[in-house]
Prior knowledge:
With 65 residues, the protein is α+β, with helices and mostly antiparallel strands.
Amino acid sequence: MEATAQRIEADHLTCLMITHHMEDALKYGNRLIVIENGIVSHDFNRQEKAALTKEKLLSFFDVIA
Protein backbone atom coordinates (compact mmCIF):
# COMPACT_ATOMS: atom_id res chain seq x y z
CA MET A 1 0.00 0.00 0.00
CA GLU A 2 2.81 2.43 0.85
CA ALA A 3 4.59 1.82 -2.45
CA THR A 4 1.37 2.33 -4.37
CA ALA A 5 0.58 5.53 -2.48
CA GLN A 6 4.08 6.86 -3.17
CA ARG A 7 3.79 6.08 -6.89
CA ILE A 8 0.38 7.75 -7.14
CA GLU A 9 1.71 10.87 -5.41
CA ALA A 10 4.97 11.02 -7.37
CA ASP A 11 3.35 10.54 -10.78
CA HIS A 12 0.21 12.60 -9.99
CA LEU A 13 -2.02 9.65 -10.83
CA THR A 14 -5.70 9.17 -10.19
CA CYS A 15 -6.54 5.97 -8.35
CA LEU A 16 -9.75 4.47 -7.02
CA MET A 17 -9.48 2.18 -4.00
CA ILE A 18 -12.47 0.21 -2.82
CA THR A 19 -12.06 -1.21 0.68
CA HIS A 20 -13.87 -2.32 3.79
CA HIS A 21 -10.70 -1.78 5.82
CA MET A 22 -11.42 1.42 7.72
CA GLU A 23 -7.78 2.11 8.63
CA ASP A 24 -6.77 2.07 4.95
CA ALA A 25 -9.76 4.22 4.00
CA LEU A 26 -8.60 6.84 6.50
CA LYS A 27 -4.87 6.59 5.77
CA TYR A 28 -4.74 6.64 1.98
CA GLY A 29 -6.09 9.06 -0.58
CA ASN A 30 -7.24 12.64 -0.56
CA ARG A 31 -10.98 12.01 -0.69
CA LEU A 32 -13.30 9.51 0.98
CA ILE A 33 -16.70 8.53 -0.34
CA VAL A 34 -18.94 6.37 1.83
CA ILE A 35 -21.43 4.21 -0.02
CA GLU A 36 -24.21 2.43 1.81
CA ASN A 37 -26.75 0.23 0.05
CA GLY A 38 -25.45 1.46 -3.31
CA ILE A 39 -26.01 5.14 -2.50
CA VAL A 40 -23.38 7.78 -1.70
CA SER A 41 -24.12 8.75 1.89
CA HIS A 42 -21.02 10.90 2.58
CA ASP A 43 -18.33 12.56 0.50
CA PHE A 44 -15.33 13.97 2.41
CA ASN A 45 -12.65 16.21 0.94
CA ARG A 46 -9.03 16.11 2.17
CA GLN A 47 -9.60 18.39 5.18
CA GLU A 48 -12.84 16.70 6.26
CA LYS A 49 -11.26 13.26 5.89
CA ALA A 50 -8.25 14.28 8.00
CA ALA A 51 -10.61 15.07 10.89
CA LEU A 52 -12.32 11.64 10.80
CA THR A 53 -11.64 8.84 13.24
CA LYS A 54 -12.32 5.14 12.74
CA GLU A 55 -15.11 5.32 15.30
CA LYS A 56 -16.76 8.25 13.51
CA LEU A 57 -16.46 6.49 10.17
CA LEU A 58 -18.00 3.31 11.57
CA SER A 59 -20.87 5.34 13.05
CA PHE A 60 -22.06 6.12 9.51
CA PHE A 61 -22.86 2.44 9.14
CA ASP A 62 -24.49 2.06 12.56
CA VAL A 63 -21.67 -0.32 13.56
CA ILE A 64 -20.43 -0.56 17.10
CA ALA A 65 -16.63 -0.09 17.06
